[in-house]
Amino acid sequence: MKANAFKRNLVIGIMILLIGVFIIPSDALADFADGDFLNWYDTYIATPGDSAYMTRYDSGGNPDANVTSTTVYGPEHGVVFHLMVNNDAEWNPAIEGPIECVTFQIDTKSVSGWGSGQALEILVLQNGQYFIAPWSSSATGSSTEWHTMTLGGCQASDFFLVDITGGGDTTIHPDFSESGTSIKFGFFTGNSGYMGPYTQRYDNWHIGAFSRGDVNRDGVIDLGDVVYLITYLYKNGPAPDCLLAGDANCSGEVELGDVVYLITYLYKAGPPPSCK
Length: 276
Description:
With 276 residues, this protein is α+β, with helices and mostly antiparallel strands. The protein has 2 domains: 2-27 and 221-267, no CATH class; 31-210, Jelly Rolls (Sandwich). Helix content is 18%, strand content 35%. It has helices spanning 2-18, 93-96, 223-234, 243-246, 256-267, and strands at residues 31-34, 40-46, 51-57, 66-72, 79-91, 101-112, 119-126, 129-133, 147-154, 160-161, 183-192, 198-210. The strands form 2 sheets. Strands 1, 3, 4, 6, 9 and 12 form a 6-stranded antiparallel sheet that branches. The protein has a 6-stranded antiparallel sheet with strand order 2-5-11-7-8-10, with no helix packed on it. A hairpin with an 8-residue loop joins strand 3 (51-57) and strand 4. The chain is elongated. The protein starts with a helix and ends in a 9-residue tail after the last helix.
């Protein structure tokens, strides 16, 4: 116990000495937000006779521009998956750095339809394939008032390939590593078995992608990340949105060793946070 207390106090003491020291930037994270929806495209996967379409509006959003996702059913009342991609939300892990995990936030409200709303998931497009990350509580709900839905901490292994079965292929995932190709982000909606059109309105779409070591997701690995980790570990501070980002030494845990690792990287020319 005394040894642990000594280590903790030593790290905090080092932190005090380092305040004001030159900050070293690292690879910028991918951070995309869009409330205008000017450069999107959409497609759908559906049973024969069913379809979906995206419509942009200049007003009526939260507060202004917004889009709607409408699913339309034919005689069989089957399954419709609506896939919407932001052309400006592109990240190349091989060039710009690997992604450890992704967070998602969007505002939504119901326009017309029945039931618990649309299924809503984060969407990744890579190599012409669409991947979604399941939400533990994914239905948007039938509320006609704006409300915010968030999803945090999705790794590449949480995403699976979309197909018309609804379950998809859970063995195929996107590649967020240094060997991965370019990625585009968007969002996915879906409905099944409803007789009439279902329309849901969306605004303030946001994707945040974390790199290992960038605990506070400000785009650099610096003193702020060390302070954030110490506050989380020893001062009952909030956990990182992406806990993996705090595992700087890739030990599988977020603990004192990660604080030491970041300090060594920043001020002792140590290796960068990585699982290599």
